[in-house]
Design goal:
2 copies of one chain form a homodimer. Chain A is α+β, with helices and mostly antiparallel strands. Chain A has helices at about 20-35, 45-55, 60-70, 75-90, 130-145, 160-165; strands at about 5, 60, 95, 105, 115-120, 125-130, 145-160. Chain B binds a DNA duplex through helix 2 and helix 4.
Chain lengths: ~190, ~190
DNA sequence: TGATTGTTGAGACCTGGTCTCATCTAGAGG
DNA sequence: CCTCTAGATGAGACCAGGTCTCAACAATCA
């Protein structure tokens, strides 16, 4: 499977209470994953897991690298880029918010699958999950003879704050030349 | 350069031939769009529209540039990259199959909105449209106070052919030719 | 015609990401 | 504890898509 897609449930994704143990749990899971492939759990990989799980939300790779540096771990760009797909495949991470500009990840362990709603104005990211989507996606894939292995699904728009901000500042833009269809919520 | 990266043979050339009218229609639409913004309809832009509409399916930008060259139009990379977003905004093109590696566009004019189903094995791209998705998406955005302005939605999996091939391995790699690099790397 | 302002094209530049390769190390055996 | 070997690492070269710059150019309008 392409490392880094939104894995469809039924894969790993063990739903467990997010707690201190999550690092331990992830390490265990990763160790198992590596063992199956005759790969090694090295210090660098351990450090990356820790740094990764410490960041609760989505994070761009670049920030993760900075994190590692800050922790005094050498951690080269190459190593991080090599490790993240492994973690994704192991079900510990999942790719998130792929805007076509930068990749971004987030912890997957112990979480339900979800997709993202991104604000074009301020960059805010809201997560949502909606069982119905999964069902429809599977249905569509099947209809075309595909076996579904993942998806990218991201909604983009303006959050409430940004919509408000559009109207408020800088004079009275009465929304005259806003070619945005899709009704202006609330 | 990675030749053929987003080539989806057997998938294109379905739509009707260029159809003078669609180019004319697009030009008219674009002209109106530009006029509203005090921008100009130049020879380069005209050429880009024509080249774009001549390609019925999805196409990577790189190929479009090659097209222009082939047509004897100078067309620099910068101009193309500057024009495509304009065309998108004008509703003539739409972004398609954003894998996070390369952008890819397709004509939007006169077409229903649709999303894509991509085969990880051979790179085949199937289009699908499903009203229900749009409705759910709108619903979700609204629920979070967002005004929906667009989305990325792409399903990935294995097409029937590739699944069959999986079961009967040993055969020659039918598509080694078409890495389509959705996999982990080069 | 000339002034104004948007547009173009070539190429330098930027940047996220990958690859190379010498060196290191986890882990299995001895 | 030592040795051996394949996997892992890190620094940095490298790659490619995409953006920016800037001088030259052209559509418009006075």
């Amino acid at each position: 499977m392409r490392p880094g897609l939104n894995n469809h449930p039924g894969d790993q994704a063990i739903a467990a209470p997010p707690g201190e143990s999550s690092v331990a749990q992830a390490l265990k899971q990763f160790e198992r994953f590596l063992a199956e492939r005759a790969l090694r759990l090295t210090a660098a990989r351990r450090a990356i897991i820790e740094a990764v799980l410490e960041r609760a939300g989505h994070f761009p790779i670049e920030e993760l690298i900075a994190d590692l540096r800050r922790r005094g771990i050498r951690g080269s760009k190459a190593t991080v880029y090599r490790t993240l797909p492994l973690l994704t495949e192991a079900g510990i991470l999942q790719e998130a918010v792929v805007t076509g500009e930068t990749r971004s990840y987030e912890a997957a362990i112990g979480r339900e699958h979800h997709d993202h709603l991104v604000c074009l104005g301020c960059g805010k990211v809201v997560e949502f999950e909606f069982e119905a989507f999964e069902i429809l996606q599977r249905e569509i894939a099947a209809r075309h003879g595909f076996r579904l292995e993942g998806h990218h699904h991201q909604l983009v728009g303006r959050c409430a704050d940004c919509q408000r901000r559009e109207v408020a500042p800088a004079g009275p833009p009465v929304n005259a030349e806003h070619p945005n269809r899709v009704g202006s919520g609330r």
